[in-house]
Amino acid sequence: MKFSFKILLCMMTVIALALGFSGYYFVNYVFETSLEREIGQSLDESSILGFALETAALNVPTNYSALPDNTIDEIAANLEASGQQKRLLRISDEQKQILYVSDGFLEDKHLLAETGADVKSYRVARAGGKHYVHAVTAVNARNRILYLETMRDVSEVFTERTMGFSLYRRVTLLMLLVGLLLMYVMTSFLTKPMRILTRATKQMAAGDYAYRANQVSQDELGELTTDFNAMAEALERNVGALEREVAAKEEFMGAFAHELKTPLTAIIGYADTLRSQSMDEEKQLMAANYIYTEGKRLEAMSLRLLDIIVAGSQEVHLQRIAAELIFDYLKEMFSGRTDVKIQFAFDAGIVCAEPNLIKTVLVNLIDNACKASEPGGSIEVEGRAAEDGYQFSVRDYGIGIPREEQQKITKAFYMVDKSRARRQNGAGLGLALCAEILKIHGSELVIESEEKKGSCFCFFLKDRAAKCN
Ligand code: ADP
C-alpha cells in the first residue's frame, strides 16, 4: 500500500473516531439533560397533584371521619381532567389497593410496592411504544395515607435522541467524504518530495548519476532532498573517478602490452635466426648483442614498473633532512657527466621527505634534462627554502615539450618522441614514477616548457612538521 494511502487511512480513522465519540457524547448529553428536566417536571407535577389532592380532601364536609372511597374517585377524576391534556394517574390506599386508575395507566405495580409512606420515587418506563416518567408520592388526605402515581409522556426526548444520532451519522459521513477529498489533496502535496526522491533513486539506479531531485519544500523532506543530492554528487564524483581510473588502467595495460611487444618481437626474431640459420660470427654477435640489449631494456622497464607499484602502495615515512645532503648526493651522482654542464644552487634548509624517494625524483628529472639537452647544454638544479617548505627545480635549455603533450608525459609509457626516447633507453616510466612519489608526499610536478627553448620541472615539499620525524 502506498505511503500516502496509509497516511490517508490513519487520518480518516482518527477523524471518524473523533467525530463518532464527540457526536455520541454530545447527543447523549443533550438527551440526559432533557430527560433530567422532564423527570424534575414530573416530580414537581406529582407534588402539585399530591398537594391538590390533600387540599381537595380537606374541603370535603367534616361529617366523615375518614375520606370515603367514592369522594377520592371524584377528586381523582377532577385532577385527571385539570390539565391541558388528560392526565394519567392512579390512587391507591394504605394497603396499596387501587382506588382509582386512569385509562391507559401502566399495570405494573412494582414501583408502588417499593414506595413507603414517607418517600417519593420514580422510574422511566416504556409502554405501548412510548416512554413515561412514572412517579409515586404518598399523600396524607384527611387521616388517610394515599399513594398518588402519575405518568408523564417523555417519548419526545427519546425521539429527539434517535433523530440526533441519525442526523449526526449523516453529518459525520458527509464530513468524512469532504475530509477524504481534502486529505487526499493534502497527502499528495505532502508526499510530493518523496515521489520526487523515488524517481531520482530509480534514475540513479538506472545509471543516470547526473540526475538531481528537485527540492520542493524547506522541511525535513526538503533537507532529505538536499542530502540526497549531496550524496548523488559524491556518488557521481566517485563513479567518475572510478571510471577514469579504469580507463587509465586500460590505457596502461595497452601501453604496457605494446612496450613489451616491441622488444619481445626483436628478441624472439633474433633468437629464431640464431637457432635456425648458420651465420658468420659477426652476425651471431650482432644478434646476441641485440637480444642482450633488448633483454636489458625489458629488465629496466620491469624494475621501473615495480618501483611505481611499490611507491603507489607504500606508506611514506617522512624525515627531516638537510637540503645540503640531497644536493651532495646529486652532485656526486652526476659528477661523471661531461656531455652537459650541470649547475647546482641551493639554500640551506630542511626538507620534509622520504630521502631516497626524493633523490629518485630528482635523479629522474636531471636524467631527463640531460637527455633533452644538446651536448654541452647547461642544466640548472635549484633548491629554494620557503616559509612553509622547500622548492626544487630542474631547468634545461633543450628540446622542450609541445604544450599539448605537457599534461600527458606523466602517464606511464608516454613518450613525446618514441624513437628518440627508445634510443636513449627510455620507456616513458620515469615521470610516472616521479608523479607517484610526489603524490604520496602530498605534492605534484609543475611543468613549464617551450618547444626548442627548454623545460623547467619543479615541485614543492611542504614542511609538515607534525608528520616529520
Ligand atoms: P623516459 O624513460 O622516456 O625518459 P619519462 O617518463 O621520464 O620517460 O619521460 C616521458 C617523456 O617526456 C620522455 O620520453 C620525453 O619525451 C619527455 N620529457 C621528459 N622530460 C623532458 C625534458 N626535460 N625535456 C623534454 N622532454 C622531456
Features:
Heat Shock Protein 90; binds adenosine-5'-diphosphate; 12 strands; 18% strand; Helix Hairpins; Beta-Lactamase; alpha+beta
Short description:
With 469 residues, this protein is an alpha+beta fold. 55% of the residues lie in helices and 18% in strands.
Description:
With 469 residues, this protein is an alpha+beta fold. It has three domains: 3-166, 2-Layer Sandwich (Beta-Lactamase), CATH 3.30.450; 215-311, Orthogonal Bundle (Helix Hairpins); 315-467, Histidine kinase-like ATPase, C-terminal domain (Heat Shock Protein 90), CATH 3.30.565. 55% of the residues lie in helices and 18% in strands. It contains eleven helices and twelve strands. The protein has helices at residues 3-58, 69-81, 110-114, 155-190, 192-205, 220-276, 281-313, 323-333, 355-372, 418-423, 430-440; strands at 88-92, 98-101, 120-127, 130-141, 144-153, 319-322, 341-346, 350-353, 378-386, 389-396, 446-450, 454-462. The protein has a five-stranded antiparallel β-sheet with strand order 2-1-5-4-3, with helices on one face. A hairpin with a 2-residue loop joins strand 3 (120-127) and strand 4. Helix 6 packs antiparallel against helix 7 (281-313). The chain is rod-shaped and about 175 Å long. The two termini are 63 Å apart. The model has no long low-confidence stretch (mean pLDDT 89). The structure holds adenosine-5'-diphosphate. Adenosine-5'-diphosphate is lined by residues 364, 368-369, 372, 396, 398-401, 409, 414-417, 421, 426-432, 455.
Q: CATH homologous superfamily name of the largest domain?
A: PAS domain
Report the CATH architecture of the largest domain: 2-Layer Sandwich
- Outline, from the CA principal axes? rod-shaped
In order across it, which strands form the biggest sheet?
2-1-5-4-3
Under the CATH scheme, which class of the largest domain? Alpha Beta
Radius of gyration: 57 Å
